[in-house]
Amino acid sequence: VDRAYPRSVWGVLKISRTLVALATLLCFVASKAHETYAALAGMETVITFLFLLLYLLRLDARMRCLFWPLADILNSVIAALFLLVVCLFAIITRTNKGTLAGGVLGLILLALCLTDAVLLCKKISLDKARGRSAPAK
């Protein structure tokens, strides 16, 4: 178990993404909103929690068949696109206050997804040296 990960920037971001996604899911379920809203929030909760476990248990270092930070970036970008559409629909339709609250929390989750993607892109480009250290001639 990586005890430093939950205190790192990436760990705090993953934990907050998981909690906000769970709160969004609970708002959509409690308000009896359209099933699509709850399904997206539920999938985002589960996928983000699985990535959190992957990094927390250091499974990314053991399973080298996939470049996990890139998969995490793709997940964040795709989730952000889906969240943008679904949460805007939830806010526009706002059948009740629970749907409106879920839509607003979903937009906060969208911002967290984009922040996560940007930070992961910076981490990838800064952590790994690419190519030779001498300039090409």
Automatic annotation (TrEMBL):
Which residues are listed as membrane-spanning?
12-31, 37-57, 69-92, 98-120
The record's keywords, sorted A to Z, are:
Membrane, Transmembrane, Transmembrane helix
* Domain MARVEL: start-end pairs: 5-125
Location of the protein in the cell: Membrane
Recorded topology in the membrane: Multi-pass membrane protein
One CC-aspect GO term: membrane
User: What protein does this entry describe?
Assistant: CKLF factor
Lineage of the species this protein comes from: Eukaryota, Metazoa, Chordata, Craniata, Vertebrata
